[in-house]
Amino acid sequence: MSDILAILAPGMIVAHRDRPDWGRGQVQSVIGTHVTVMFPELGKLVLDGTEVPLLLISTGPEPS
Question: Where are the beta strands (DSSP E) in the chain?
């Protein structure tokens, strides 16, 4: 299991390390290695946290 999976929780803001064009997304759920992230431009994606290099941006929602 990747290190980031151990700390991810709903509400945290993440980004895909290799896809900066996706922008920042909010974690919706973490179930096992599956991370559901809502990206404003892409919608909801279910990602394999062991395969997708996520970066933790913030531990809480971004300010409006």
Answer: 13-16, 24-31, 34-39, 43-48, 54-58
